[in-house]
Amino acid sequence: MRKVEWPVSLEHDQPDGTRVHLRPIRRRDRSGWTEVREHNQAWLRPWEATLPPGSPPGPATFAALVRLLSEQARHGRALPWLIHLTEQGATRVVGQLTVSGIVGGSAAWGQVGYWVDQRVAGRGIVPTAVAMAVDHCFATLEMHRIEIAIRPENAASLRVVAKLGFRPEGLRPRYLHIDGDWRDHLVFALNAEEVPEGLLRRWERLRG
């Protein structure tokens, strides 16, 4: 696995004429990020990571979140992107995608997590963003495995991994602390040799 270089920006044009961007999270994104988060509180709450009782507090402000994620990126442990969408000449924040838990050596793997604005859900933005991130991990960083963990009740995210052809690997009981308690998760994975042509190219072919 190659050294994680940061910052990195990616973009891709969708068939509907819009453009999906993955851009490093920055302090100047605060207003756009805050607007989307506030609008989608109820939509995101059931799937949001929370801290178990007794844990040290997490970032209290957007600036603190950016500092934490940027530090992880500088140390090669994460790729923290915001998802931006360009349509009709305007670009705005519509979500977030992070490759976290990056490990090199004999593992060479990472985990993908994401969320998206409900107002643009169902338009192929998340599958496109995930495919872009996975291709970067496999082709540029030479990682071997990408994993996504999803609550069994999260039908929208289950559709994402189904569309992209991630391989189901089973249930992990009480795997992550989500929405105030330890929750079961279904785990899906993809190895680099399973998509020699690139995941984005395969996704574009399937959706077309």
Automatic annotation (TrEMBL):
<feature type="domain" description="N-acetyltransferase">
    <location>
        <begin position="20"/>
        <end position="193"/>
    </location>
</feature>
<protein>
    <submittedName>
        <fullName>N-acetyltransferase</fullName>
    </submittedName>
</protein>
<keyword id="KW-0012">Acyltransferase</keyword>
<keyword id="KW-0808">Transferase</keyword>
<comment type="similarity">
    <text>Belongs to the acetyltransferase family. RimJ subfamily.</text>
</comment>
<dbReference type="GO" id="GO:0008999">
    <property type="term" value="F:protein-N-terminal-alanine acetyltransferase activity"/>
</dbReference>
<dbReference type="InterPro" id="IPR000182">
    <property type="entry name" value="GNAT_dom"/>
</dbReference>
<dbReference type="InterPro" id="IPR051531">
    <property type="entry name" value="N-acetyltransferase"/>
</dbReference>
<dbReference type="Pfam" id="PF13302">
    <property type="entry name" value="Acetyltransf_3"/>
</dbReference>
<dbReference type="GO" id="GO:0005737">
    <property type="term" value="C:cytoplasm"/>
</dbReference>
<dbReference type="InterPro" id="IPR016181">
    <property type="entry name" value="Acyl_CoA_acyltransferase"/>
</dbReference>
